[in-house]
Write a structure and sequence with these properties.
heterotetramer, A: about 325 residues, alpha/beta, Rossmann fold, Hypothetical Protein Tm841, Chain: A,domain 3, six-stranded mixed beta sheet, 8 helices, 14 strands, B: about 230 residues, mainly alpha, 9 helices, about 0% strand, globular, binds adenosine-5'-diphosphate, binds magnesium ion
């Protein structure tokens, strides 16, 4: 294992200290328990949006705390959902009296821990709603399984919902908007290499020099299938087609296209993949209204990418465009 | 009975026995940490050994910091620690199991065979109520469920015998997860590819019950079946 | 070699097409020859700032084209300086009558090709100045060698100088400001892994599982020494100490601290390294006034990092803070 | 002399000979592409083979698109292509070399021994004026410089002999770069670690001169020394 770290035990904490120093103007970083809130205390009278999950997906979620997006983020250990203590502390810290929305990625651990935290916070007087994001079409959805994972759609939900909270929407509206985003977003990812969890010390899976894992999540979980590597265009099609079919996205749809890197894939490749993805959409008569390209929801140093498609309506587009000022996404101010 | 004195020899588990079991399980988890990580790497995210290790280390510390006055208190301290400090799926699932076990034996000073069965069953029910997994979903329930059945069937033979039966059944359940296609937890994302791998949570469950069985058999000597 | 590409021949062109699609509001991307300019034509009466170099360092330079930063960028083949044709075309496209500044990283190829382009553009009536950035302290500077490489300092120079051009400074002022930035900036980098040049098809160098290359550049050139890997804090010190000694930076200095990823290193590690770097500076009484953490000048998928320190004066700080709107750096609008 | 007819046999290089040399060099570069990349990977950035291949392919295309009327024109087309289309260090350096060679033989319809020497020397001077490298800096100059000296010394022996001498000297110069510590170009960044590796640019230079030598010897048959 080769990483720029000191001790696997302390990776999350030391990285949080770096975030605290690098973004002292934007963030307040708490270390016991771990959570990140906007500098300056709760927004009185506004709904607070809180998310979290295992560390190792940076900039998700801490990099999205700030004006117009999250009020708080709770990073667990690497790839381990945060504890109720963290989520409860963050929830109480940002509750400005108008209620708190938890945006939760659909993993058993995340769901259970956020549930417990919500109960604890509710017991102390916070009004808490939760929306579970489950946009990963690589996973078969069924009543009898854990269901789909939450992946790239989470970033888009956090931006759009954060903007609604910022403009003063109430908890019920913010919650139903978040559900609307979730209902309209689909993703799928692939890996060229595994990541290495620091405390595991070795790659989670081994891929041959000519293989890709298709249908991976964001925790180094192996994917649905292992295939021989193909040209980028074919790889993009492998991700985009199931996404397109699932909702379905149709000719005339207005969409946001998000090509995300898994952490170790350079921008030159992401833009190359982006070109193919937008081309395919154009051919299908789908109109790409907004775009995002970069490493936003990652799996440590994994090489790979995911494609996320969000069917936009006018309100979502307006909220996407609204000013945001976080370490990782910033525009309009 | 004076604190610190053990009554397991008579088939009853004391507070200290429960604490000792927790301490031993923490040690077992620590020595199986990499194995549990490797099992989780194959069909999950390579953290189960780390999660359990972090959780059990914290549980032992919590018991040391604030020594419990009853088996239920000991179980509750473990539960709260796992729930509040571990995260992941294992934290709340094991935590809920310990919490329900604690509630089920709330008024007992020592635990007899029926208490142990009640506690184990409550743990399983807690687990299922939180995680919604059924037997065959390739989760820790596949180890817990046969263990509870075996324990109940052997309840008349005393604590040591019933936990021994539970441990055997848990290990069998654990091994039986290997061919299964997962329907719950992270392994379910792999679909058919999850088959052929043993479930990490079922493994940590089997380890837990084996710790109980070993401890009870030590305390009871050879009269396990006759207490 | 495992990459999200179609054909090594077309990596740069296909990636540029993706940039064009993803940033149509900001950029105009020309493919024959390759260069990127701001959408909307030249800024009449303002100095234009042009940079370029081999591709493979994304987001450098194309990601820095836009309001308040570059007017044009010329990406060569991967790790190969652009041709005079490219630079000449870009220079002519953005010349708004107030002259053009070329910001050139100090590599033999870059210097020669920009020189030729400047001659060609001058022959057609453009007024062209050039500043060569050479901030890499890993390379011994001497009259008899190729001198120091241009690395991380280039990003800072492009931002600060771009802001000066944006506010209307004349060519002489913009040029001397760029020289001032270069005189006050120092960098050094290390690699945990090699990168793989697409047309080479295999890693440029091989590193053992326990080795790092210290003093690398941004082209996969091996570094000055190969060392056993150390904890992050020690690695950061290895980069920071030569940087600090070189200028030197002293107690009371006001600085911008830039911790840069080489492309394959995830943010969680960069923030962790950042924490150590800022701590060391604090201990030395050096005041970190501004910060940048992320993958801004990269070597394809290389894992590693560089540390850049810029001694700020009030004007540089003001220009750093000035609004910028490019694909990769954006604030204030 | 009719266009297309070769006079090398008489020790004079025609326009077609120059074009043929360029075509052959392009082929040689293409088949040594990976070797040049590997040499550059060791002490540079792994692109010299690609740069030269891209440049020479373009040069051949340019000569085909617009057939030159004189050796100087052929050389100039190559020069312009390398300068304007290749990038990197090799593009402008080789480009300048070809450009200066072209200027040096501007008024010649065919090239005799003295013209060839003049051209080679001008190429070297151009290279040095652009790159500022000296012999011993571990660059292509280390191949070019002894080649020019050897060519000059053998000028009296005719074109084939002088280019054969130049090729031998270039190869020796190329090999002599191995132990050197680089002072120019990308390899200089490695300091002491650049020692022990052969310079890629010196290698592509030696290949170029060997192409000239082989072509001249073919054209002249065995009377190379007596033209
Ligand atoms: N819904 C569930 N019900 C019961 N057990 C579950 C469920 N989901 C997961 N598990 C158990 O949890 C184990 C994984 O725990 P762990 O790796 O610590 O958490 P995570 O999956 O969050 O990384 C699985 O091996 C499985 O036995
Ligand atoms: N200043 C110089 N003078 C002469 N030759 C040089 C100089 N700098 C570099 N070279 C030659 O250029 C070769 C490298 O060319 P190439 O790899 O194509 O360009 P780059 O270094 O830009 O990647 C070196 O092997 C060396 O022979
Ligand atoms: Mg986990
Ligand atoms: Mg796990
Ligand atoms: Mg190069
Ligand atoms: Mg090179």
């Amino acid at each position: 294992m080769k990483k720029i770290i000191n001790d696997p035990e302390n990776v999350v904490e030391e990285s949080l200290r770096g975030m605290a120093m690098a973004h002292a103007d934007l963030l307040e970083v708490h270390l016991d328990p771990h959570y990140i809130v906007r500098a300056g205390g709760p927004d009185e009278g506004k709904v607070a949006v809180v998310s979290g999950g295992g560390a190792g997906h940076e900039p998700l979620h801490g990099g999205f705390v700030g004006y117009g997006m999250l009020h708080a983020a709770c990073p667990g250990a690497v790839f381990t959902s945060p504890t109720p203590d963290q989520v409860e502390a963050a929830t109480k810290a940002v509750d400005g009296g108008a209620g708190v929305l938890h945006i939760v990625k659909n993993y058993t651990g995340d769901v259970l821990n956020f549930e417990t935290a919500a109960e604890l916070a509710a017991a102390e007087g916070s009004q808490v709603e939760a929306v579970v994001i489950n946009d990963d079409v690589a996973v078969k959805d069924s009543l009898y399984t854990a269901g789909r994972r939450g992946v790239g759609g989470t970033v888009l939900a956090e931006k759009i919902v954060g903007a609604a909270a910022e403009r003063g929407d109430d908890l019920a509206s913010v919650t139903s908007l978040c559900e609307r985003v979730n209902a309209n977003v689909r993703s799928m990812g692939l890996a060229l290499t595994s990541c290495t969890v620091p405390h595991a010390g070795k790659p989670t899976f081994e891929l041959g020099e000519d293989e890709v894992e298709v249908g991976i999540g964001i925790h180094g979980e192996p994917g649905r299938e292992r295939l021989p590597i193909e040209p980028a265009d074919a790889l993009v099609d492998r991700l985009l087609n199931p996404v397109l079919e699932d909702l379905p996205f149709e000719s005339g749809s207005q969409v946001l296209l998000f090509v995300n890197g898994m952490g170790g894939t350079p921008l030159i490749e992401l833009y190359l993949a982006y070109a193919r993805a937008e081309e395919v959409l154009r051919e299908r008569g789908i109109s790409v209204q907004r775009r995002l390209v970069g490493n936003y929801i990652t799996s440590l140093e994994m090489q790979g990418m995911s494609v996320t498609l969000l069917r936009l309506d006018d309100e979502m587009t307006e909220l996407w465009d609204a000013p945001v000022h976080t370490p990782a996404l910033r525009w309009g101010r | 009975m004076a604190p610190g004195e053990s009554d397991t020899a008579g088939g009853m588990a004391t507070t200290d026995d429960v604490v000792e079991a927790v301490v031993r399980y923490a040690a077992v988890v620590s020595s199986h940490r990499q194995e549990l990580i490797d099992l989780d790497a194959a069909i999950g995210d390579a953290d189960h050994g780390e999660n359990m290790n972090r959780g059990m280390t914290a549980a032992v510390q919590a018991l040391e910091a604030d020594p419990p006055g009853s088996p239920a208190e000991a179980l509750k301290t473990v539960a709260t620690t796992l729930i509040r400090k571990v995260g992941g799926a294992a934290g709340p699932l094991y935590g809920t199991a310990f919490l329900r076990a604690s509630t089920a034996v709330q008024d007992r000073e020592t635990l007899g065979p029926d208490d142990v069965v009640t506690g184990l069953r409550a743990a399983l029910e807690g687990l299922v109520s939180r995680g919604k997994a059924e037997v065959g979903d390739k989760t820790m329930v596949d180890a817990w469920s046969p263990a509870v059945d075996a324990a109940a069937a052997a309840a008349g033979d005393g604590v040591a015998a019933l936990v021994a039966a539970a441990a055997d059944a848990a290990e069998e359940g654990m091994r039986a997860t290997t061919p299964l296609v997962a329907r719950k937890g992270r392994a379910s994302y792999l679909g058919e590819r999850s088959a052929g791998h043993q479930d990490p949570g079922a493994t940590s469950t089997a380890l837990l019950l084996r710790v109980l069985a070993d401890l009870a058999s030590e305390r009871c000597g050879s009269d396990a079946g006759t207490a």
